[in-house]
């Protein structure tokens, strides 16, 4: 069992690379937190990714929590940064705090997450010995129950509108390190009068991150062009590899 301080450092590091699946494949958290160890490395990394996102929802203090409370501010910061995918500056502006205050609050919030997950790791052997069942199996069942609860809870949450440009900026900030590692430039061309996104913000962000990750993984060099425009009251978004050597990729428009 690793020391709690090292575990907290691993959690902080994983959140900083939350959308770099290749990086998460090497995280020591895979062995400690992923229930299904029989799947491939990429699938295990995605399970870790989902777990780290789901734990943020667990910190939701509920609609009656005062916005001045630390619990509300902590959950809101993590939601804006990792669920909505906003940049640190955008989160700071939303919460009316300085960048220095943002990083301090972010570190404290992620330490809370780490302590919650650490408690589950410590408790797992106790459950196994007292109930005579594998700890991994119980953790998997717990994750399924939590996923169902979070889905039901999210259905009752008040939805807020988010500018598409904010969604794109958040996505790009989270995946930029992965793109730079492959020497890939990402450009975005946005049309006028683009609609805001509400209840589908998280889904759109996950789709964009998934497509960008796929394109980045399957090409070296060149660039990726994102286009967004409104036509017939519908939003159209396309992602396309550009200026890529033919030998480097066979991907076209996604």
Can you describe this structure?
Helix content is 59%, strand content 9%. The protein is mainly alpha-helical and 254 residues long. The chain is built from 10 helices and 3 strands. The relative contact order is 0.10. A hairpin with a 2-residue loop joins strand 2 (223-231) and strand 3. A 3-stranded mixed sheet has the order 1-2-3, with helices on one face. The protein has 2 domains: 4-155, no CATH class; 164-242, Heat Shock Protein 90, CATH 3.30.565. The longest helix has 33 residues, at 99-131. The protein is globular, with a radius of gyration of 20 Å.
List keywords for this structure.
254 residues; 3-stranded mixed sheet; 9% strand; 2 domains; 10 helices; disordered C terminus; 59% helix; mainly alpha; Heat Shock Protein 90
Class by alpha and beta content: mainly alpha
Write down the secondary-structure element order: HHHHHHHHHEHEE
Q: Whole-number radius of gyration? A: 20 Å
Number of domains: 2
The separation of the N and C termini measures: 43 Å
Percent strand: 5-15%
The mean pLDDT is 76
Regions with pLDDT < 50 over 5+ consecutive residues? 125-159, 247-254
Oligomer: single chain
Question: Largest beta sheet, briefly?
Answer: 3 strands, mixed
Helix count, per DSSP?
10
Biggest β-sheet: strands ordered side by side in the sheet: 1-2-3
**Percent range of helical residues:** 55-70%
Overall strand count: 3
Gross morphology: globular
């Amino acid at each position: 069992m690793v020391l709690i301080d090292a575990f907290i450092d691993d959690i902080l590091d994983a959140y900083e690379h939350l959308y770099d699946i290749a990086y998460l494949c090497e995280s020591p958290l895979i062995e400690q937190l992923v229930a299904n160890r029989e799947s491939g490395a990429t699938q295990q990394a995605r399970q870790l990714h989902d777990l780290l996102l789901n734990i943020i929802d667990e910190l939701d203090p509920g609609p009656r929590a005062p916005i001045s409370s630390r619990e509300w501010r902590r959950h809101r910061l993590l939601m804006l940064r990792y669920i909505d995918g906003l940049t640190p500056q955008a989160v700071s502006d939303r919460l009316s705090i300085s960048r220095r205050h943002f990083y301090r609050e972010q570190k404290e919030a992620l330490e809370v997450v780490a302590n919650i997950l650490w408690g589950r790791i410590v408790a797992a052997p106790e459950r196994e010995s007292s109930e005579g069942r594998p700890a991994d199996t119980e953790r998997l069942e717990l994750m399924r129950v939590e996923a169902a609860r979070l889905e039901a809870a999210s259905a009752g949450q008040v939805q807020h509108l988010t500018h598409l440009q904010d969604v794109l900026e958040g996505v790009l900030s989270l995946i930029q390190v992965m793109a730079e590692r492959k020497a890939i430039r990402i450009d975005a061309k946005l049309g006028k009068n683009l609609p805001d996104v509400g209840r589908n913000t998280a889904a759109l962000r996950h789709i964009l991150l998934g497509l960008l990750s796929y394109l980045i993984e399957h090409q070296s060099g060149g660039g990726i062009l994102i286009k967004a425009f409104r036509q017939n009251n519908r939003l159209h978004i396309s992602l396309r590899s550009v200026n890529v050597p033919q030998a480097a990729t066979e991907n076209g428009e996604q």
